[in-house]
Amino acid sequence: MTPTHLPGRVAIPALPEQTRTPRSPNLLDAFNTASPEDVHHLLLTCLRSLRWARRVADHRPYPDLDSLQAASDEAAYDLSPGDLSEALAGETLPSLPDGTYGAAHMALDAAHAAYEAKFGHSFVICLDGLSAGEALDHVLAGIRSRLTNDPEEERVVAAEELRRLAKGRLLERLTHPGGPPVQL
């Protein structure tokens, strides 16, 4: 099975100012001026790879969140197989919504076990934009369809999912001060 999307280096044109993600001055400024240790800690909660976090931190300051997310994407494209393995090792299967019935948990556990046995790492998938009711079906369908990939195809797909997860996490950490506790 050939993936429909292979990541590559793509020039990202500058967006008109009105379409850019609004800047959260306090949090982005704090990110830009924080100590390298604090920034690495925050980035590791989003990126799960030391090299990935270091590359993003080393290119501070960022004028806006779009630039930060673009830098995260660019750094992810240069991850070595070891860096990608490190990032994948830090991931866990998405949690199911409260009230999900037991058979769904069993189906997900079985599918995930088959996936880990074949590929040697946790299944990663970005669920941004999906309702809680759609998450289970999306995860199960994703695991089942991706089990048909060969290991190299799956590493490409998993790397793309990691990039999507990282972008969402960065946006969440730097735009919602009441979110998960990460100090800068």
CATH architectural category of the largest domain: Orthogonal Bundle
Based on Cα principal axes, name the global outline.
Answer: globular
CATH superfamily of the largest domain: Oxo-4-hydroxy-4-carboxy-5-ureidoimidazoline decarboxylase
From the alpha carbons, calculate the radius of gyration and give it in angstroms.
17 Å
State mean pLDDT (0 to 100 scale). Answer: 82
| Series of secondary-structure elements, N-terminal to C-terminal | HHHHHHHH
Give an account of the 3D structure.
This protein is an all-alpha fold and 184 residues long. The chain folds into two domains: 73 residues, Oxo-4-hydroxy-4-carboxy-5-ureidoimidazoline decarboxylase (UraD-like, Orthogonal Bundle), CATH 1.10.3330; 63 residues, no CATH class. It has eight helices and no strands. α4 packs antiparallel against α8. The termini are far apart.
Could you provide a short overview of the structure?
Helices cover 60% and strands 0% of the residues. It has 184 residues and is an all-alpha fold.
Give descriptors for this structure.
2 domains; disordered N terminus; 0% strand; UraD-like; mainly alpha; 184 residues
